[in-house]
């Protein structure tokens, strides 16, 4: 059976009655069991990238520059690592991070260096629609549950929902972190000396909640909620550059991307145009995105076009209330993504001394496809990453 995006799908719910769901908010086997993949990645796999460009480990060849987390067709969350020689390693049964994830869970990963210790966290939704956190680091190299796992944070119970964790503060920690050029905010801007993570997740079909964790704390705390949002779409964020402003990107109920900003610098005077410690909607709007689009930002902002299912890239000048899209948007030159495919993006140093944009999404349901281009310009190249049994 072929189901188009304009069809509705009837499926069993947790109540005694079946529910009818717009197929635009479903992916893979949730549309039809025939679409479940039986090898490779899960059809509708979440994808998360953790840049692990920590210079000492890169120099001695013991650490790759990028780790990709994905959902295996068995349902397990696994990782693959981009090795220094450019090959992807891992992904087999020895690379399992979690085994209790819900089908098509969104994935989010955060990595940083603090006091000489490299740490990385992976967030996903389990089969009880609860946010889970798995944490690891080079001090132990053992996966353990992180503090959000103990909080019983319930998310919107739907097939495709938004969830995103984002580091905030001083550019991912210590100066040992090797990174691509940061976006265009003034490097002399007042620095945020507090560091930690934010988490945004859909609590229902039109509401996102925000949680926060400060480095050194043993729990997360509630911080804000956003109403009038599309809970099926993804979340983008930027909060690791110079200055004290955090940016979050969400999709509204008309399927247009909106960008919000918040300045936490209490050393300046709050004004109507530039309030302090308040979320403010910017003038940026990107219409006609897919209703379940994933969103991603590292140097460039990406969203899936509703008509073509291609991912478009947008260069944004970050300046709080004066933030704007600059230049001409571009299209990631590859195959159209699955409708509502999860996406993950990054920018990493390359072997020639420059930097590359990397974009990952699914095109056929059992794949994870990688698209790469020079940070400034050039042709896109692509590869389908091998996923072991």
Question: Which SSEs are present, and which pair or pack?
Answer:
Layout: E1 8-12, E2 18-22, E3 47-51, H1 55-60, E4 66-71, E5 77-82, E6 88-90, E7 96-98, E8 108-114, E9 117-125, E10 131-137, E11 144-145, E12 163-168, E13 196-204, E14 207-214, E15 221-227, E16 236-238, E17 245-251, E18 257-263, E19 280-286, E20 295-298, E21 300-304, E22 311-317, E23 324-331, E24 343-349, E25 355-361, E26 369-374, E27 381-384
Antiparallel strand pairs: 1-2, 3-4, 4-5, 5-6, 5-7, 8-9, 9-10, 10-11, 12-13, 13-14, 14-15, 16-17, 17-18, 18-19, 20-21, 21-22, 22-23, 24-25, 25-26, 26-27
Protein name: Fucose-specific lectin
Percentage of helical residues? Answer: under 10%
Q: Regions with pLDDT < 50 over 5+ consecutive residues? A: 1-6, 12-17, 54-63, 172-179
Number of strands: 27
What CATH calls the topology is: Neuraminidase
The named CATH superfamily: Fucose-specific lectin
Q: By helix and strand content, what is the structural category?
A: mainly beta
CATH architecture descriptor: 6 Propeller
Tally of DSSP helical segments: 1
End-to-end Cα distance, whole Å, is 27 Å
Strand content: 35-45%
Structural domains: how many = 1
SSE string, helix = H, strand = E?
EEEHEEEEEEEEEEEEEEEEEEEEEEEE
Protein name: Fucose-specific lectin
């Amino acid at each position: 059976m072929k189901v188009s995006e304009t069809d509705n799908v009837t499926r069993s719910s947790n109540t005694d009655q079946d529910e009818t769901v717009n197929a635009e908010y479903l992916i893979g086997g949730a549309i039809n069991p025939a679409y479940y993949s039986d090898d490779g990645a899960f059809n509708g796999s979440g994808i998360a990238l953790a840049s692990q460009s920590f210079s000492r480990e890169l120099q001695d060849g013991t650490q790759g520059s990028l780790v990709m987390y994905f959902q295996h067709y068995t349902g397990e969350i696994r990782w693959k690592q981009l090795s220094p020689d450019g090959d992807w390693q891992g992904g087999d049964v020895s690379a399992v991070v979690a085994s209790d994830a819900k089908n098509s869970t969104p994935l989010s990963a955060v990595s940083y260096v603090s006091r000489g210790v490299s740490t990385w966290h992976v967030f996903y939704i389990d089969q009880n629609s609860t946010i889970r956190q798995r944490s690891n680091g080079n001090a132990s190299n053992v996966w353990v549950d992180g503090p959000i796992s103990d909080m019983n944070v319930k998310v919107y119970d739907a097939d495709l929902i938004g969830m995103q964790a984002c580091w905030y503060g001083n550019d991912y920690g210590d100066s040992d972190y090797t990174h691509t050029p940061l976006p265009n905010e003034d490097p002399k801007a007042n620095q945020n000396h507090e560091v930690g993570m934010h988490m945004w997740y859909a609590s229902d079909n039109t509401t996102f909640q925000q949680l926060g964790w400060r480095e050194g704390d043993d729990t997360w705390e509630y911080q804000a909620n956003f109403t009038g949002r599309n809970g099926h779409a993804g979340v983008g964020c930027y909060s690791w550059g110079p200055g004290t402003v955090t940016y979050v990107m969400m999709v509204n109920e008309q399927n247009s991307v909106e960008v919000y900003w918040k300045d936490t610098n209490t050393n300046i005077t709050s004004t109507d145009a530039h309030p302090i410690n308040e979320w403010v909607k910017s003038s940026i709007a990107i219409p006609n995105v897919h209703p379940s689009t994933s969103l991603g930002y590292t140097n460039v902002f990406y969203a899936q076009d509703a008509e073509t299912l291609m991912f478009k890239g947008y260069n944004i000048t970050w300046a709080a209330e004066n933030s704007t899209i600059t230049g001409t948007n571009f299209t990631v030159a590859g195959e159209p993504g699955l409708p509502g495919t999860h996406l993950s993006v990054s920018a990493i140093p390359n072997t020639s001394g420059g930097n590359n944009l990397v974009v990952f999404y699914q095109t056929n349901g059992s794949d994870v496809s990688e698209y790469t281009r020079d940070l400034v310009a050039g042709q896109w190249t692509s590869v389908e990453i091998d996923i072991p049994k």
